[in-house]
């Protein structure tokens, strides 16, 4: 039986395709072969009977359509990409993991897809999402152990990368929908600063939080993708001095960190000591003593926005929604405008306070477990998003790096969070952190 795990280097594949050592048609065929081999067991992709015909035709058009010389080929030339099924792609129906008619959900192609296509990428297909990217799980299974959830709501995107079906996939995060699946599936997930990737053409969960992001097998891969997808990307942001300096890491001590389970905290302590041994300064910073109030504030805003996002569809198709989504929408109906505005004010104050706390402690990046523990057994839940909640609330860029395994063999992740707008600095630091977590020289390439 075909092994379910296979990591594909986005950077290596992109280099081979741009140089001419590989060609888009062959790459597309390999993607189809891999999907055919393992997706029957994992169900990461939305079924598409004519996928191979469509994808190979697109690859031939790219290869034969007057493609530029190798030196002039765009960054993602010939790369196959999985796209979460709340993101509109011309020619592919959007179902959002729901039983609603696709024609009711139709809309213009998403800006993120336009950027992928302009960079030479090929759409491998739609990946499974929890219903409307809320909490009702899809059928996707974890490639490390199919008896466990891959996380959500970007379930299919994370599983597709972990299983080597594609080297790059697009997801979204409202609270923890990118970072948690990355940790559960043992890959790298990147959620940029809120608004850094345009959200046009994406069905909203809660528009004040929804953020597009990407998955790849390693930090170099998400960095390559981010340079294409993010507004105003600057490879030289921060200058040479900033690039050469190790970031100071902060541990957010207090009730937030205590939400992780004992196994996740034990592993986090080990990861912290490994980073210290690699030469990183790590400081404990007491923060978020009012964490329960932060959680309440976020969900006041979130549920209000969920209900408004479905104001047109829910009255027409409410009987087709799943129980968890109905509960979120009905909760949102109970929240008035005044409560929402008050929660929004508290959110702004929280973001400012968190930035002040980081500055006062002299830290560059926060670190924490990516999830409360390894992927839970079963497919009835996608797991808890609470370890991602404050960072999503503040709109900060975050990253999950693979960080060892739990006692049962499932992967764990280290969450690294940057300052608002400092996505480049976060990803520049990621490669060194990745090496240090693996026990390698954190500055091997300097």
CATH superfamily of the largest domain: Amidase signature (AS) domain
Report the average pLDDT across residues.
Answer: 96
What's the gyration radius in Å? 21 Å
Helix and strand pattern: HHHEHHEHEHEEHHEHEHHHHEHEEH
Q: How many structural domains in the coordinates?
A: 2
What is the CATH architecture annotation of the largest domain?
Answer: Alpha-Beta Complex
Query: What is the general shape?
Result: globular
What do you see in this structure?
GO terms for molecular function: catalytic activity. This is Amidase. Residues 137-156 are annotated as: Disordered. Residues 30-427 form the Amidase domain. The protein is of the alpha/beta class and 446 residues long. The protein folds into two domains: 10-229, Amidase signature (AS) domain (Amidase signature (AS) enzymes); 241-437, Amidase signature (AS) domain (Amidase signature (AS) enzymes), CATH 3.90.1300.10. Helices cover 41% and strands 13% of the residues. It is built from 16 helices and ten strands. The chain has helices at 10-19, 24-42, 51-64, 102-105, 111-118, 155-162, 179-185, 219-229, 239-244, 262-277, 291-309, 313-317, 323-333, 337-361, 389-393, 423-437; strands at residues 80-84, 122-127, 168-173, 188-191, 211-216, 249-253, 282-286, 365-369, 398-405, 411-417. Strands 2-1-3-5-4-9-10-8-6-7 form a ten-stranded mixed β-sheet, sandwiched between helices. β6, α10 (262-277) and β7 (282-286) form a beta-alpha-beta unit. The radius of gyration is 21 Å and the shape is globular. The termini are far apart. 54% of the residues are buried. The mean pLDDT is 96.
